[in-house]
Design goal:
α25 (659-671) packs across α28. Among the domains are: 6-89, no CATH class; 104-114 and 131-248, Pleckstrin-homology domain (PH domain)/Phosphotyrosine-binding domain (PTB) (PH-domain like); 290-410, Roll (PH-domain like), CATH 2.30.29.30; 426-436 and 471-539 and 562-580, no CATH class; 595-739, Ypt/Rab-GAP domain of gyp1p, domain 3 (Cyclin A, domain 1); 767-787 and 808-890 and 1023-1034 and 1058-1098 and 1156-1180, Recoverin, domain 1, CATH 1.10.238. The strands form four sheets. Strands 16-17-18-12-13-14-15-19 form an eight-stranded antiparallel β-sheet. A seven-stranded antiparallel β-sheet has the order 8-7-6-5-11-10-9. β10 and β11 form a beta hairpin. Helices cover 48% and strands 12% of the residues. The longest helix has 31 residues, at 728-758. The chain is of the alpha+beta class and 1181 residues long. The protein starts with 5 loop residues before the first strand and ends with a helix. The protein contains 44 helices and 21 strands. It comes from Toxocara canis. InterPro entries: GRAM, PH-like_dom_sf, Rab-GAP-TBC_dom, Rab-GAP_TBC_sf. Residues 1135-1147 have a biased composition (Basic and acidic residues). Residues 470-657 form the Rab-GAP TBC domain.
Length: 1181
């Protein structure tokens, strides 16, 4: 049966190369094999090599090589033919041959495992699936496939069995059953809803909703695993969309996996590296959330163990977590006990000899710098854990030494900033009038004595109870630092804040103006922020954070949070608390889109609907369901509740995170439910809530007096009523659901705004602009995934460019993205050099970035514009600064470089400048440089070493099909006696179309041409065509520029400048490139040759008046000299023939020397439109 599924392609006496049926072939058998592979998920590599040993007793076939691509398998086959077959011919026994082959193959595999490559960490089966994935859905090779699952897609009521492919950027499905194929490709950023349905009679169903359609998938082997991965990838895509970053593989994990490749771990080898990477990210994120650790911390591993608690002499069962900078423990029973130990607080790690009691053997003693010790027992592999801890401690020591050396280098610059810092909380300078009672202070002192103090204290349920009661003023800052993780992060980054201040000194940032505007709005009633130290410290921490994290920069409400932090902490501590709030406790709250706050409003509405459905219905009726708690969450109730009471909420917020805000908001709604249900409008409901929050007080003795409500009682009730119903797991689950919806709504709103800003000048309809927007968006996301150079959050990256005036969002295009999109959307095949020039034309601000409006207007002109508009775009792309003489460095011979530099060429000075960096920047007209950094040139241009004409010199050799050689033509422009092109001289002194000189006879033109002889480009049979073109020239010019025809002063229309000969020839080469794939290319090439010939001759007419003037001047000089009695050289007479041959029109040397040859846009447009075939070609839309 297996042999019928394969086709033999190469055979020798011992080996056979086979190809899988259904791979690149047709026929009934291939159709059946492809269907079997699709339904049963058998995805073997399409090529293999077998060793075959056939005898009378048995037939042995052993797979010795497999490959995804034919080229790879052929290389293996050639190696076998060259290296194995000569040796095998010397063996006499088949058993010896088999033994030798197997031994050789095993040795090759061992050598490969001993030298693992980062690209070979996935098995050959995974690479075969990846190749098929890219081919089926036409995706780039760098698109990363995470996993695929067999499932069923419901096409109406018809099930389609196939595979669901999940990649970093796409959700795809493919089914092939007896020739009927179903192919679905969805971008994660287009998905608005992900839900799982669990009907009674049918298996679980995954429902995927986009803006246009709904897709249902079921029959998964492991639905929970699939749904978890789908939600994780969708969440990752939404975060990347908000943060404007791409997916970056974990390089350290890839190196680790490559080193482990030789070990026998079948489960890991069958899993792709990307999925392992995502699993590691998920575990690290849970680890950071559990212990409030820095954003960059990555979990290395965890293991079950027991912690000895000295306060009750027990061994508590739990898990030990180890990362590069932390050792953490949490009990199996929720909130029983947890410990966080930064590596810089660890003094030593030693094995501990236990008594051998069951469950507490294999002990590890961790000694801390505060003279305390933490005992961990029950470790399954104590030696490995101890080795990891010692290695991490050594690495951290090296990092700290490097950090100190860097600090010493910048110590002089940092001295000024360090002197200005506030060393103490502002509450010591401006003390509070109230504090907790002495009884509660004694409880806190006893708790610190029993459970320890500082970062490494034992965190038990007793800490939570005391936080509910209140925190003494002198301990509040320390408790906030411990519970939020800011203390540990600050200890690992000694001197970082001062260094940020030094780096940001005298640096302009867009956020500075907003910070200055909001400084005096921060707690204006508090004396600390009415003058001097408080305002200066707040300015410093906000500026330092804006410099640390430009993605956030500064957002309103950060000033209020920062001012409160300064009241209870020193300046550096307040900065690290602000980092904890913005990056861990309230992620995405303080960016420009306030996505996190909007997402949490949706989460809050869902919780209200589930717990208080009647109240949710009323709030929805009033239009308050998704905004009632927005101001509460943005400032953590600091703006909604009296200051002292709000500080009590902050105590628990730093301990429990954002769930505290949901609990308190739910309790406020619950206690005001009846009043809200009786409200007649939204204003009355808001008055009810405002009146309630105004009555909250921090003093317990005021409870009940004048309707005052003790905040501690509100917090206790919130934990009693909603502590179990609302947890962080539920919040994160609902955040994913609403993050999809919020981000998509923001994207849709942004898209509508951008499309509206494009304006009526663009010829695209709104639907076409939406399609273009989505194409750019998809390419932008794919580019982000390919880009790995973006610094991580918190590394002090440079601020992003200022947004353009049209607010074109983050989807601005640099040259790399533009070069991917622009040629793909054009109906013609364009040279890469034209793409570069188009980018230069649009990059008017010379920043290397284009807006959506730029590319939309350009494409609309090229795709939907009239012929005049299309040709004008091509014309402008061949004028400075879009045109660059550096583009022709591969064309202009080296022998002419000195000539080019010493002679004034008929182009602007900035044409000779190169482009900047990797982006084809425009050349500034004020630049004095001769050459710059050149962009990469296309390699297609093939020219002769000794050019004879400009066509062959500049890439047009061989394009003039159907016409005689340019140098062999005999028809002269001056032979057209009855030329209709008669008009007045141009304003610039040149002779435009219709100059009277064109009507002269050849004899009359002897004083205009330098040599007195005529030149020609086409034969005499084309004379009628040339006359026909000239007759229609004038009317076509008036048609292309009606404003100039109707107005006597044409200078007001600002026409584009004239084009010189080199630029014109490059323009014509671009036109020839457009015709390469046209079915009517012979006729079009012929028409282009005729029109190009006319225009080359027309450009020459501008030179003749200048040459005639020079001739008259020379004659006058000879007369003056003759009159003075001096001898006149007769050889200089213009009437005598010249000794040297005159340069041919179009010759490369004459192009560089010629500063008078020129044409304008109207002449070129009119000439092209007079040729019917060319007019029809450019009229296609």
């Amino acid at each position: 049966m297996g042999a019928t599924l394969w086709v033999n392609e190469c055979i020798n006496p011992c080996f056979v190369l086979q190809r899988r049926k259904g791979h690149g072939t047709r026929g009934l058998s291939s159709l059946l094999v492809a269907t079997l592979d699709s339904v049963f998920d058998t995805r073997p590599p399409p090529y293999r090599i077998l060793y075959q040993n056939q005898s009378d007793d048995e037939q042995v076939s052993i797979v010795v090589a497999v490959a995804v691509q034919r080229k790879e398998i052929l290389e293996n086959w050639e190696w076998i033919e060259k290296n194995l077959m000569p040796t095998l011919s010397s063996f006499e026994s088949e058993a010896d041959v088999r033994r030798y082959v197997l031994t050789k193959i095993e040795s090759l595999v061992s050598m490969e495992d001993a030298n693992p490559s980062a690209q070979d960490i996935d098995s050959i089966s995974n690479r075969a699936i990846l190749h098929r994935f890219h081919k089926l859905f036409a995706l780039p090779r760098d698109e990363k496939l995470v996993n695929y699952y067999t499932c069923c897609y419901w096409k109406g009521k018809v099930p389609c069995q196939g595979q669901m492919y999940l990649s970093v950027n796409f959700l795809c499905f493919y089914s092939f059953i007896m020739g009927n194929q179903t192919c679905i490709k969805l971008n994660w950023t287009d998905i608005t809803v992900l839900e799982k349905d669990m009907p009674l009679l049918f298996p679980q169903t995954l429902t995927v909703v986009t803006r246009e359609n709904t897709y249902n998938f079921s029959m998964f082997v492991n639905f929970d695993e699939t749904f978890k991965l789908v939600t994780q990838l969708a969440n990752l895509a939404m975060k990347q969309l908000v943060e404007e970053e791409g997916f970056r593989e974990d390089v350290a994990l890839k190196r680790k996996v490559a080193l482990e490749r030789g070990k026998k771990k079948s489960r890991k080898e069958n899993t792709s590296f990307i999925q392992r990477d995502l699993d590691a990210r998920y575990r690290s994120e849970s680890y950071r959330c559990k212990f409030s650790l820095p954003y960059t911390e990555k979990l290395d591993g965890d293991t079950p163990c027991r912690l000895f608690t000295p306060y009750d002499k027990r061994h508590v069962l739990g898990r030990l977590y180890v990362s590069a900078h932390f050792v953490c423990f949490t009990s199996k029973i929720h909130r029983l006990v947890s410990v966080v130990m930064p590596m810089n607080e660890v003094e030593s790690v030693e094995p501990f000899r236990t008594t051998g009691e069951a469950g507490i053997a294999n002990g590890l003693l961790i000694c801390l710098r505060n003279k305390a010790a933490v005992l961990i027992t029950g470790l399954p592999d104590r030696d490995r854990v101890m080795e990891k801890l010692i290695n991490f401690k050594a690495k951290l020591k090296f990092e700290m030494v490097s950090q100190k050396s860097d600090t010493q280098v910048s110590e002089e610059g940092s001295f000024k900033e360090a002197e200005l810092l506030l060393k103490e909380p502002l509450s010591k300078t401006y003390p509070f009038t109230t504090d907790v009672d002495d009884k509660l202070k004694a409880k806190w002192a006893a708790m610190f004595d029993e459970y320890g103090r500082g970062v490494c204290m034992y965190r038990t349920v007793e800490l939570h109870r005391l936080l509910l009661d209140g925190v003494p003023l002198k301990d509040r800052g320390e408790v906030w630092m411990i519970c939020s993780g800011a203390a540990a992060e600050m200890s690992l980054n000694e001197g970082y804040y001062v260094d940020l201040l030094r780096k940001s000194r005298d640096k302009y940032m867009m956020a500075l103006e907003e910070i200055e505007r909001d400084l005096h709005r921060s707690l204006p009633e508090h004396p600390a922020f009415q003058q001097g130290p408080g305002i200066d410290a707040l300015r410093r921490i906000l500026t330092a954070y804006a410099f640390r994290n430009p993605n956030i920069g500064y957002c309103q409400a950060m000033n209020i949070v920062g001012s409160v932090l300064l009241l209870f902490n020193s300046e550096e501590e307040a900065f690290w608390l602000l980092v904890a709030v913005c990056e861990r406790l309230l992620p995405d709250y303080y960016n420009t889109k306030v996505v996190g706050a909007l997402v949490d409003q949706g989460v809050f509405a869902d919780i209200v609907e589930k717990v208080l459905p009647e109240l949710h219905t009323k709030l929805k009726e009033l239009g308050l369901d998704d905004m009632v708690a927005l101001s509460w969450f943005l400032t953590v109730f600091l703006n909604a509740i009296k200051f002292d009471a709000a500080i009590h909420i902050l105590d628990l917020f730093f301990y429990d995170g954002s769930r505290v805000m949901f609990q308190v908001a739910m309790q406020i709604l619950k206690e005001n439910q009846n009043e809200i249900l009786d409200a007649r409008d939204d204003g009355e409901a808001l008055v009810v809530l405002t009146s309630y929050t105004d009555r909250l007080t921090e003093r317990e003795d005021e409870h009940g007096k004048k309707d005052k409500i003790y905040i501690g009682l509100l917090l206790t009730r919130s934990y009693m009523n909603f502590g179990e119903a609302i947890d962080n797991e539920l919040i994160e689950k609902l955040r994913l659901k609403h993050r999809l919806k919020v981000v998509q709504n923001l994207e849709d709103s942004q898209m509508r705004s951008i499309i509206k800003s494009v304006g009526p000048d663009c010829k695209f309809t709104s639907e076409e602009l939406e399609v273009l927007y989505n194409i750019i968006k998809e390419e932008h996301l794919l580019w982000r995934s390919r880009f790995t150079g973006t610094p991580r959050r918190g590394e002090g990256v440079l601020e992003r460019p200022k947004p353009d005036p049209c607010q074109q969002s983050q989807y601005r295009l640099d040259f790399e993205i533009f070069s991917q999109i622009f040629p793909r959307l054009l109906p013609w095949q364009v040279n890469p050099l034209f793409t570069i020039r188009a980018f230069r034309l649009l990059d008017s601000s010379d920043v290397g970035l284009l807006t959506f409006r730029d590319i939309a207007c350009l494409l609309a002109s090229l795709l939907k514009g009239d012929p005049t508009e299309k040709i004008s775009v091509f014309y402008r792309c061949h004028l400075p600064p879009a045109f660059n003489m550096s583009d022709l460095e591969d064309v202009i011979p080296l022998s002419l470089h000195n000539l080019e530099e010493d002679t004034e060429v008929g182009v602007e000075a900035n044409d000779a400048l190169g482009s900047c960096e990797s982006s084809p920047r425009r050349c500034g007209s004020s630049s004095k440089q001769r050459k710059g950094i050149n962009i990469e040139k296309p390699k297609e241009i093939d020219i002769a070493n000794t050019p004879s004409s400009v066509f062959s010199d500049l890439g047009l050799k061989g394009k003039l099909m159907g016409c005689r050689s340019l140098s062999e033509s005999s028809y002269s422009v001056a032979s057209t006696k009855d030329s209709p092109c008669a008009s007045k001289p141009g304003a610039d002194g040149g002779i435009p179309i219709g100059s009277p000189q064109l009507a002269r006879s050849p004899a009359d033109n002897s004083d205009l041409s330098p040599s007195g002889e005529t030149f020609s480009f086409v034969d005499d049979s084309q004379a009628e065509t040339m006359e026909y073109l000239r007759e229609r020239m004038k009317s076509a010019i008036n048609k292309t520029n009606p404003e100039c025809a109707s107005k006597p002063d044409s200078s007001k229309s600002n026409p584009p400048p004239d084009i010189n000969q080199i630029q014109f020839i490059q323009l014509w080469k671009t036109f020839y490139d457009l015709l390469d794939r046209d079915s009517n290319e012979q006729q079009l090439f012929h028409a282009l040759a005729v029109v190009g010939t006319l225009l080359l001759q027309l450009g020459e007419t501008h030179k003749w008046p200048q040459e005639r003037m020079e001739s008259d001047l020379a004659e006058a000089m000879r007369t003056i000299v003759g009159g003075s009695g001096e001898e006149v050289d007769s050889s200089s007479s213009p009437d005598e023939p010249r000794d040297h041959e005159s340069p041919k029109p179009g010759d490369l040397r004459s192009c560089l020397l010629d500063g008078e040859w020129r044409l304008n846009c109207e002449q070129i447009v009119a000439s092209i439109l007079t040729e019917p075939s060319l007019a029809a070609f450019f009229d296609q839309r």
